[in-house]
Amino acid sequence: MPTLAQVQAEIARRGAEKNREREARDAERELAEELLRTDWAKHARPEQRLPPGDWLTWLILAGRGMGKTKTGAESIRELVCGPTPLAPGRYARVALIAETAADARDVIVEGPSGILGIHPRVYRPMYEPSKRRLTWPNGAIATVFNATEPDQLRGPQFDLAWGDELAKWEYVQEVYDQLQFGLRLRGPSGDRPRQIFTTTPRPIPIVRKLVAASDTIVTRGNTLDNAANLAPSFLEKIVERYAGTRLGRQELNAEILDDVVGALWTRETIDKARWKIEVPDFARVVVAVDPSGARSVDDEGADSIGIVVAARGVDGRAYVKADMTCKLSPAGWGARAVQAYIDNDADCVVAERNYGGAMVEHVIKTAAQHRGVTVAFREVVASRGKVVRAEPIAQLYEQGRVSHIGELSALEDQMCQFTNDGYVGDGSPDRADALVWALSSLMDMRPVVTVSPEVLARSRQPAVAYGSSRFGRP
Ligand SMILES: Nc1ncnc2c1ncn2[C@@H]1O[C@H](COP(=O)(O)OP(=O)(O)O)[C@@H](O)[C@H]1O
Ligand SMILES: [Mg+2]
Fold this sequence. Notes:
About 35% of the residues lie in helices and about 20% in strands. By secondary structure, the chain is an alpha/beta fold. It has two domains: about 210 residues, P-loop containing nucleotide triphosphate hydrolases (Rossmann fold, 3-Layer(aba) Sandwich), CATH 3.40.50.300; about 210 residues, Nucleotidyltransferase, domain 5 (2-Layer Sandwich), CATH 3.30.420. The strands form three sheets. It has an eight-stranded mixed β-sheet with strand order 3-4-5-2-6-7-1-8, sandwiched between helices. Strands 9, 10, 11, 12, 13, 14, 15 and 18 form an eight-stranded mixed β-sheet that branches. The longest helix has about 35 residues. It is elongated, with a radius of gyration of 28 Å. The site of adenosine-5'-diphosphate has 17 residues, from helix 3.
């Protein structure tokens, strides 16, 4: 006769066994469900599938929310994973490149459409953020880069690369060039090196070049193609914001917009004058601030503030050094402008008096005090129209007297949508406005005001008065 204790032990053993069996069954079912849920072949729309053929570049130009990031991540999975988790795939040394370090982490790797999220657990790579590295169970490795640090790409070699939002990269040409040097390995079974770029299109030279290349497959997609997978609130907001606008054609329909007829600036003029060699010494540097974006219709919380840094070289030419436009609280943009002032060893911060200048002065003053620095402030007085102000500046470009240092894509987009009839882009041209202030002040081009000659003669005052003040700690 078994003792009571023995009976109880036997019951417990059988119970545990049942539990184990149930757990195993649950796990199996979960895995099957997960594999089904993450089966890209089943979910991808045709334009999201890896194209056949011997391409070097697959360029996906598509609107926001079309599924570009997901397509990039899924394609990497398809090319790196084998038929089982430990089996080798076609590629094993991967470069993943995002616009910024934050995007690399939050979008490409950890985001909902990113690498980690789209892999079923058994195939999922291990992520080591400190090494910017992903390691798959089959030994394949991806390194994560961002386009603000082109030097990161110097050295390592790859057989496969994916770049997300290429058209927005800060150092797009440098990063692209570095990648081309590194993209020289064949895959484990001899496949040629390949690169995939997923981006909202912009008419920058590299995008045009890739579109024209014979070994590029170009795929286009519209935001609305992915409507079924997008939150209705997102769709509503984005369609309302962009539908029918020029920018909407680019951001939703993925058209590459070419120059606007009658624009004050053309891509060609700006490109031709782009500065690629060592810059001369600067005689004067200004940080121009334009708060006009604060009044744009699509404001959400923080204000959009145009911040542009420009310099006048000892050669008498002007150099546009940086576009630091941002959408931040006053404390945020104030600190950013003061930082730009410090970093660029600037002579003054410039802002328009009539249109928020007092506010700018106050914000800059506060930020300067916070940093314990002195910032010189200069007011410029506006003429009546944006176009009247912009025209003489555009002429300086025509004369080849202004160069951009590197690509300032977002700013250049705005400039090329400035026409004689006004700004035809979306929202407010905060960047271009700040540029006009910076260059007007630097080149001592007084903004035009309409004052009759008699009044002028009587007052014997210059048509435009510049105010000037200094604040912060002495
Ligand atoms: N074929 C698809 N099936 C299911 N969901 C998809 C598909 N393509 C994209 N999605 C989802 O749509 C949303 C937007 O995709 P994402 O790749 O982030 O867009 P984009 O990078 O173009 O802005 C994400 O939630 C993504 O998971
Ligand atoms: Mg994306």
